[in-house]
Amino acid sequence: MDKNNSHPQPTPPFDNRNQDTPEMGGGLSVIGYWAEHTLSPEGAKLWQTLLHKSACLSCAWGTGGQKGGFTNEEGEKLQRCMKSVESISAEIKPAIPQHFFEQYNINQLQQLTSREADRLGRWSFPVILRSGKSHYERITWDEIYQIAQTAFAKMPERVASYSSGRSSNEAAFLLQLMMRTLGSNNLADCSDLCHAPSTFGLKQSIGTGTSVVSLESLKHSDCIVLAGSNAAYNHPRLMNELIKLRERGGKVIIINPMMEVGLVKFASPAFPVKSLFTGSDIASIYLQPIPGSDVALFTGIQKALLESNKIQHDFLQAYTENWQAVITHIENTSWETITTTCGVSQTEIETAAKLITNSQKVVFAWAMGITQHQNGVDNVYSIVNTALITGNIGREGTGVMPVRGHSNVQGFGSMGVTVQLKQEIQQALEKLLGRSLSKVKGYDTHALIEAADAGKVDTLICVGGNLYAANPDSEKVKRALNKIETIIYLATKPNLGHFHGLANQNTIIIPVFNRFENPHKTTVESGNNFVRLNDEGETHLKTADLIAEVDFLTELAARIHGEYPVNWRKLQDTKYVRQLIAQTIPGYEKIATIDETQEEFTIGGRIFDTPQFPTSSGKAKMFVTPLPQLKLPEIKDFDVAEDTQGIIVALMTGRSYAQHNTVVYQIEDKYRGIPHRNCILMNKDDVEKAGFKQHQRVTVQGNVGKLENVEIIYGAVREGAGVMFYPEVNVIFRAEIEERCGTPGFKRVPVLVYGE
Ligand SMILES: Nc1nc2c(c(=O)[nH]1)N[C@H]1C(S)=C(S)[C@@H](COP(=O)(O)OP(=O)(O)OC[C@H]3O[C@@H](n4cnc5c(=O)[nH]c(N)nc54)[C@H](O)[C@@H]3O)O[C@H]1N2
Ligand SMILES: Nc1nc2c(c(=O)[nH]1)N[C@H]1C(S)=C(S)[C@@H](COP(=O)(O)OP(=O)(O)OC[C@H]3O[C@@H](n4cnc5c(=O)[nH]c(N)nc54)[C@H](O)[C@@H]3O)O[C@H]1N2
Ligand code: SF4
Ligand SMILES: [Mo]
């Protein structure tokens, strides 16, 4: 079968995987989890929260909102997945006990794992760790504002923020307005670590930074290409769409070096009970490229299309620019280069190309397996090129669809929390301020850490997230943060960052309401460009001293800026923030009346149903995508004894089944058969070739550190690749960086695996 390459396409049930793993994703264990949690003592609160009119906290698929917790934007019911329950369950835990921080010093707190830190409970009063002190202690609001005001009086270039996409649009808008009024563009955000290459690549090529496919449009497609996404774990309700697409005769092409069981077969609780037992087929074809080689694979698909005369020349001519250069590049790239770079055979690539051309309406979707690479932007370009070459964009049921991460990460970008600010927003802000914005380029997350390490940052405010644990090279991040004078964390739950990411002088933690208990109405934006309205709520922490993010940011801004350029305190009524958003953010006009209409809406100008692109020429720009040179280092390149025996693999670092980003909920990953966090999942042939066995303990060494006593687990990952979990693995490597947007190459980390 394989013309040019010996890489076999494993077909499920895979013989290479660990025999302990289930044969499909989802299924009865999900129902079991639901039952366990909803019938537990916290069950009543959990149900109340699920029924609360607010968007799901977890991923950007965006379930929930005004039509009730179990509804998507198409009004379809039974749309909350187990991940949603998991995230709520973590938030309705009791408060950290009053005297906890008197009992435990910072050294002790630093011994906690991610899971232990989360399990301490909710932050319920503000605390400070002062320089030279060993314990966090309670602090008054007055003193917080005094310290903060002084800290924000530094040179604007030396003040920065970091944010994570769980907070509201209103908080995001206020954060960037406060920072830009100060004269600082240092608005680092978790999206820098995530979909920034999608935003950047899409903006350059088709003039918009987000998905051009609505949920409704997706329902018309008859083929989905899903690359570098483990939706079965991370966007479970997207799986419903894949199941329905297969049921109407459509095709699903999965591109992923790891054969994820839930992408082969998935049993969704949204479908008749029968399917819970049998599961539904997901992948029509499953391609397993070498990590980091997607450009080669997509170029291969394009070449197969070219050779079978399936390129839509009329479409390219009418609606695109630079297509000739891309076609020449495809012609000049040999099959041998393509197949050796991506490790997928010509036959498999041709089969995928045929599935695409035999379909009428194709959607191309992707997640971190595409973006978290040194050439993440090229990966995105190569996907866009494939969509354009086949005329699959600008028509219902077609298009490009980055599958976004955090539940409001896209809203943060829309609100201007980014170092790559849209011109329209810049102009609107300049009008509001009555002066130009600072021209100094802001720090993205990577640049922020570099700047902090170089002693160039005095003050940092973190609106959510875990800057310390989300970044590679943990020791360096810790050192860098420790050079900052003042760090203010706004958070709902404790995490590793609060105990390791300590400032030089004052580290302050501000306990905030989460989305469903916020006393203000707020909004969020889903990855499908749908804006949701969240009702006010109440917290179960009756005696806690929490604050709404909006209240904290406006009070701080009022103290820094007085009444310039707005009456900040008036904005504590979030209705007025929405008025400002409507005036400033393109496509958000309808938010001005959402308080009266309660009408959730799709953002204007985002969904493309004609091939007219908001670029300067009105055409899509195609970019030539050079194939990556994927060489792994050799043993001698690692700092080990000369005679060390081992194997070098390209490590894909990411999420287990039961974690949300840096927060670990359960230590096992049952769908991949991984019993605990200190494991490496490898291909059986690689393990045997290196002379190791399953369950053997090994050392895994990266370019800045190593993890010892790591257990080897067999899995359906292609040869030459491995899988480990973050945040733990972030200790061992300094990542390659996608220079165009600062995104670390988390999905191709060369490591040496050797015996102990
Ligand atoms: N339950 C849960 N849900 C989440 C999250 C969570 O942590 N837990 N996190 C949220 C966030 S912020 C995000 S960004 C998303 C993340 O969602 P995903 O992107 O789905 O998550 P990852 O585990 O990072 O990696 C996705 C897949 O990329 C594959 N991959 C790795 N390298 C490559 C490659 O070179 N090429 C290709 N084609 N594939 C590759 C991996 O095998 C893996 O299956 O999920 C969001 N939703
Ligand atoms: N090695 C490796 N590293 C990675 C990745 C990877 O795949 N591999 N993925 C990267 C990706 S895609 C992302 S998005 C980042 C994630 O990076 P971050 O977004 O920085 O991290 P999270 O773990 O999502 O942050 C969780 C914390 O947010 C706080 N929080 C939760 N809800 C709220 C709220 O409503 N308000 C406030 N103020 N705080 C809240 C809680 O304190 C919680 O502990 O990690 C990145 N790091
Ligand atoms: S798919 Fe995402 S948004 Fe929908 S319920 Fe699950 S975690 Fe929430
Ligand atoms: Mo993310």
Account of the protein in words:
The longest helix has 14 residues, at 169-182. It is globular, with a radius of gyration of 25 Å. With 756 residues, the protein is an alpha/beta fold. It contains 31 helices and 30 strands. It has a seven-stranded mixed β-sheet with strand order 3-2-16-15-14-4-5, sandwiched between helices. A six-stranded mixed barrel has the order 21-27-24-26-25-30. The protein has a five-stranded parallel β-sheet with strand order 10-7-6-12-13, sandwiched between helices. Helix content is 34%, strand content 16%. Helix 9 (196-206) packs across helix 21 (376-389) and helix 24 (445-453) crosses helix 26 (474-481). Strand 2 and strand 3 form a beta hairpin. Bound molecules: ligand MGD (2 copies), iron/sulfur cluster and molybdenum atom. Residues 56, 58-59, 61-63, 80-81, 83-84, 235-237 line the site of iron/sulfur cluster. It comes from Plectonema cf. radiosum LEGE 06105. This is FdhF/YdeP family oxidoreductase.
Summary tags:
30 strands; binds ligand MGD; iron; binds iron/sulfur cluster; disordered N terminus; binds molybdenum atom; FdhF/YdeP family oxidoreductase; 31 helices; alpha/beta; 756 residues; 34% helix; 6-stranded mixed beta barrel; 4 iron, 4 sulfur cluster binding
Question: Helices and strands in order, then pairings?
Answer:
Blueprint: E1 25-26, H1 28-38, H2 43-51, H3 82-91, H4 100-103, H5 106-109, H6 114-119, E2 127-130, E3 137-138, H7 141-151, E4 159-163, H8 169-182, E5 187-189, H9 196-206, H10 215-218, E6 223-227, H11 231-234, H12 236-247, E7 251-255, H13 261-264, E8 265-267, H14 273-278, E9 280-281, E10 285-287, H15 294-307, H16 313-319, E11 320-321, H17 323-332, H18 335-342, H19 346-357, E12 362-366, H20 368-371, H21 376-389, E13 399-402, H22 409-414, H23 423-433, H24 445-453, E14 459-463, H25 467-470, H26 474-481, E15 486-491, H27 496-500, E16 506-511, E17 522-525, E18 530-534, H28 549-561, H29 574-584, H30 594-597, E19 601-602, E20 620-621, E21 646-654, E22 659-660, E23 663-664, E24 679-682, H31 684-689, E25 697-701, E26 706-714, E27 721-725, E28 737-738, E29 743-744, E30 749-755
Parallel strand pairs: 1-8, 4-5, 4-14, 6-7, 6-12, 7-10, 11-20, 12-13, 14-15, 15-16, 21-27, 24-26
Antiparallel strand pairs: 2-3, 2-16, 8-9, 17-18, 18-19, 21-30, 22-23, 24-27, 25-26, 25-30, 28-29
Helix pairs in contact: 8-28, 9-21, 15-18, 15-19, 15-21, 24-26
The structure holds ligand MGD (2 copies), iron/sulfur cluster and molybdenum atom.
Region (Disordered): 1-22
Protein name: FdhF/YdeP family oxidoreductase
Domain Molybdopterin dinucleotide-binding: 650-750
